[in-house]
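In keeping with the milestone schedule agreed at the kick-off meeting, the structural modelling team has produced records for the first pair of proteins. Each record is given below as a sequence line and a structure-token line. The laboratory manager (R.T.) confirmed that both were archived under the project's standard naming scheme.
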Amino acid sequence: MKITKILCLWVLTLFAVTFADEELYYDNGIAHDTFIMGQNGIYVVTKFSPSQYPAKLMKIKYYMPKVNETTAFKLSILPADLDGKPWDGNDLVEPFVISGGHAGWNEYDLGALDLNVDDDFFFVLSQNPNNFFAIGVDDQEPISLHSYDTDC
């Protein structure tokens, strides 16, 4: 996967991630808005920093205000580079498509990936070709400086 640019710092809630011993999330419990994914080349990136390493990824949670039978998005997992930014081109696993779901919080099991991270990492959400969908976002603390997009 190649992220050609990350232009904006956004404060948005996309994911919660569960490790063997903890759950990290950037959500204050109040839904604020949605972000429409409708163009190829648009990426939304969220950084996670587990409290201890190595940390085994177990599941990801994401909020979708509505879905239909064609709802799908591509998920990539990237390590952080030495500057703490996404290390583009060094995917921790091959990008994969998540499809379906229901309106509200959805959960996807990552345990089969058997992926242990030993540093900060990023979830990168991108549009699956020819598929429009909305992802829940939040613009309240404590989520600042963790999420970015390329649509600004």
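The second protein of the pair:
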Amino acid sequence: MAPVGVELRQKGGAVRIHRRQAVGMAIAAFALAASGCAATGERAVAVRLHGEVFSDHRIDQPCDEQAAAPSRPEELSGILLVFTDSAGLEMGRATTGELEWRELAPGCRFVATYAVDLPHADRYQVTFDPPEPRVVGGMSFVGAEELHPATVSLVELEATGFEWSFEVAPTYVVP
């Protein structure tokens, strides 16, 4: 009885390989595809980009009190960041996490962090899609809506340890 295998037909005859060899070849092919094909010149991975979207509220009020206020800028949480290359091809997306805060002298820094893995590129551009502002006590925080697209080079990111953060003005609308 012949061993169980896979038969490949080529010009001039057939080549028989065993299942173990076929499985090994399939795993190798998958690994090559998953790591980025060297023939295309692309590097598979990734730049692990991280940072924060923050807003400094420099008022003479303790940070704990500002953070407990219903008017704190919850809109920093849930901002969609879309990263593209210089040709406009989408490279990845991230969404900012939960709102955190840090004491400033004076005031409070409100922060929402993000992280994303992106393919290598010479330059990256980011655009922002913030959540709808909440209306609290007749006013709403609209600073996140004022975020503008930004561009950075890979060299600049390497210099910062792949950290890219964005400041949002503490802008409120009061009717």
